[in-house]
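Example 3.2
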Amino acid sequence: QVQLVESGGGLVQAGGSLRLSCADSGRTFGIYHVGWFRQAPGKEREFVAAISYNGGLTYYADSVKGRFTISRDNAKNTVYLQMNSLKPEDTAAYYCAANGRGNLRLESSYSYWGQGTQVTVSS
């Protein structure tokens, strides 16, 4: 059973940083590709970043490239999203997803989803 729990969201001023965590209590987390998605009010959920099961490959949306970094620690069953130089347009609920297959930029590629954590960036 995979249960993903996101944490680390909050309110931050523009230009600030936050680090999101996605943790799973299961023993198989280390075999899954994991992605982060976000959904702003009134908008569709969009891809943010993804990481392969061993951390060897990472993918980013153009809008966050150079500002966000995805990483993982499989010993802790946790994937991180370090977000720097935050902008008001980064305000959204952030979701992690696991067991990605195929195109990791697509929501439909993932089997498991967390409940989300809210990130609010004030100007």
